[in-house]
Design brief:
Elements: E1 4-9, E2 12-17, E3 21-24, E4 30-38, H1 42-54, E5 59-67, E6 70-78, H2 90-100, E7 105-108, E8 113-116, E9 120-121, E10 127-130, E11 134-138, H3 146-158, H4 168-177, H5 182-191
Parallel strand pairs: 4-10, 6-11
Antiparallel strand pairs: 1-2, 3-4, 5-6, 7-8, 9-10
């Protein structure tokens, strides 16, 4: 089992891999003030822990990616039935505010530059260094999941797509062509 570090931030207890605690610099010299590095993989993990501890009734997913000169992370959250949260709700505002503070910065289109964000601190004062360049917070389930399949199938049955109203068999066939698996569609149909 991998070693973990535990810390409290915003009143919530979190766990990350031990290598997130940076105690030496680039040249392997001891740091006077060790810090916790939260990169693109850790950002969704922290967000998921936050949502599961504070709002266990909600569904949450996370993913991350790397690309030339940067990285990104995405967090998806929705109600237990797959519907989006009310953006005016306390839950959405709390989740969005928490996750947004982990962004490493923002792109400034007016000046065509990337502006780095502020670091944070744990509840006991340890510095948090955020390394996610672009962070996306989505008020929906990710594509390919059963809540997303429910939305797609309902839309196909209701004629919300260019194909018009489809029968259930045709809607299932079309959902499969969109990349939904048999098991995902089966679970979605149980809940439609």
């Amino acid at each position: 089992m991998k070693n973990k570090i535990k810390f409290t931030w915003c009143g919530v207890n979190f766990e990350l891999p031990a290598e997130c605690l940076r105690t030496t610099d680039y040249w392997n010299k001891p740091l006077e003030n060790p810090y916790i590095y939260i990169g693109r993989k850790e950002c969704p993990a922290i967000a998921k822990q936050f949502v599961k501890k504070k709002y266990p009734q909600l569904l949450v997913w996370g993913s991350s990616d790397t690309f030339a000169n940067g990285n990104s992370a995405s967090v998806y959250v929705c109600n237990a039935d797959g519907t989006p949260l009310d953006r005016a709700s306390k839950e959405w505002k709390d989740i969005y505010g928490f996750v947004d503070q982990m962004s490493g910065g923002r792109y400034n289109g007016m000046e065509d530059i990337y502006e780095y964000g502020d670091s944070g601190t744990t509840d006991n004062g340890t510095k948090l260094d955020f390394g996610t360049k672009y962070l996306h917070i989505n008020n929906e389930a990710p594509h390919g999941t059963w809540p997303s399949a429910i939305k797609t199938i309902k839309g196909l049955l209701a004629g919300e797509y260019v194909f018009g109203v489809l029968s259930l068999d045709k809607a299932i066939e079309k959902a499969k062509s969109y990349g939904y698996s048999e098991s995902t569609i089966k679970k979605a149909l149980e809940l439609v």
